[in-house]
Amino acid sequence: MALIKKGSVFTLIGFYLLTIPFFNALNVTSYDNSQILGHFGASTTVFTYSTYIPFFVMLGFLPLGLKIGKQIPMRTMILSVSFLSIICNTATLYTTTIEWFTVWRALLAILSIVGIFATLIPILLKYNPTFNMPILYGIVQFILQGSKQLYQYFGTEMSSIHNWTFGIYFLNVNFLIAILLAWIFYKKDVAPMKGVFQFDWRGWLILLLFLIVILFLCTEGQTRNWLNDPKVATAIAFLLVIVGIYLIHVRFSDNPIINTDVYQYRNVVLGSLLFFYTGMMNGTGSIVTGFMTNILGFDSIYVARTHLAILIGLFIAIPLSTYLLFKRIYLATLWVTGFACYGMYHTLLYFRFYPEIDTSDFFGPFIFKGLAIGFLYPAASLYISEKVPKPLGDSRMMSGVISRAVFASLLGGAILGTFISNLNVQHKTGLSQQLSELNPIAKEQLDKNKNIYMLKGLSAWEAQKKAEKTLSNQTSQSALMLAYKDIYLVMAALCFFPILILLLFRLGRRPIGRVEVEPIPF
């Protein structure tokens, strides 16, 4: 009732709708990278750099974007970034090289950061006195997670009818709607959070150098087999030196990007660990996508449609967890529920890695994944923010972003790919050793395949070679599925492990504390 008395629900919806295109500026063209790769004809390594760079640019510009977002009048800023986003987005249609495509995408990533902060400020100012923080965090996470799934689904559907350029046109329409909404809902062109502009330029340059090294590791660590390559080992050593330089820099800076004083708060340390943990658990989704497309041969439309089951879990969990947080439920209750849902997601998928499985078999696990996201993400965002004073708010935000996005999602994803490759080699070696005359099942399958090829008119020698190749391919597929099963079994154990810790040490048996810093939902 307080919301109805003090503000317009219509205005609130308009403010939130403004955030959606900026949240999904990079998501909308990420659903069918194969078409983009084919369009430019770039090498796999170059295309990998092209995929990673916009996200690293977004992360690198994050602290500066937060400062800029508070200095410029809101309507001017939203209109400007929307118009510039249309230009950068459209320019990607007319580029002839992957390098220029990456440049325009990186500029779009920078603009989206400014747009996110610009659109969140009026929500904070107008509804923060009315909204309890859990409700504010819950709604933002609901829009962020839900719109991501819908954008990827509709993008996949339309790209199958048209091509990858649909995402460009679709995003431009979104930015045009943002321009229209800005004219409707922003009556006064003011910068209400404007203050004296102070920015840690030296610390920012150190952060950018840190991210460049991480970019190199994510892109080439796996292909160079990590520490077995001298360049990767040198990059890791250089990374440690950069961290040391930054720690020295903090001692001589009045306003560092990440003030180490923030780690005096226990919840920031544990919250950063929680962000890393949830990012790691969520990062295994790429394995399922690869399994569905590369092994099962599912069309991208079916893959995107199946992933919509995550929305069911989100629609249940985020409103419920938001309501429970508002009602002062114990944090441990939400954490145990969320980790249990992630555990069920990985456990169910562990039993799904076999040939000829149907798309409907993935709906149940994906619903559990949506439930896990809905129970853990709002609670984690609030927990890492509680009792943190406003001067340390940006440090708290950057700590969570680096833990989840940089170390868990980006670098963790690259390391996970290496683990899968190594496990695949081990399983393939073990299975190949069983392909001998002493194995009656293998010999029977080989003879069967050989007879089939001979019936097609091949000579005995050609049929033998074809049969051996077919059996080898089947072995490779089985080895990869065994590697996937190993990963998901380990992840299932890692998901249930925090529940044991929470129950044994009686952690989190209290409601959320006071939160005063801005909810930055990355």
TrEMBL record:
Task: Give an example GO cellular component term for this record.
Answer: membrane
Query: Which InterPro entries does the protein's record reference?
Result: MFS_trans_sf
Recorded superkingdom: Bacteria
Keywords in alphabetical order, please.
Answer: Membrane, Transmembrane, Transmembrane helix, Transport
Chief location category: membrane
Transmembrane residue ranges: 7-26, 46-66, 78-97, 103-125, 166-186, 201-219, 231-249, 269-296, 308-326, 332-354, 366-385, 405-425, 487-505
Q: Where in the cell is it found?
A: Membrane
Query: What name does this protein carry?
Result: MFS transporter
- UniProt source species: Flavobacterium aquariorum
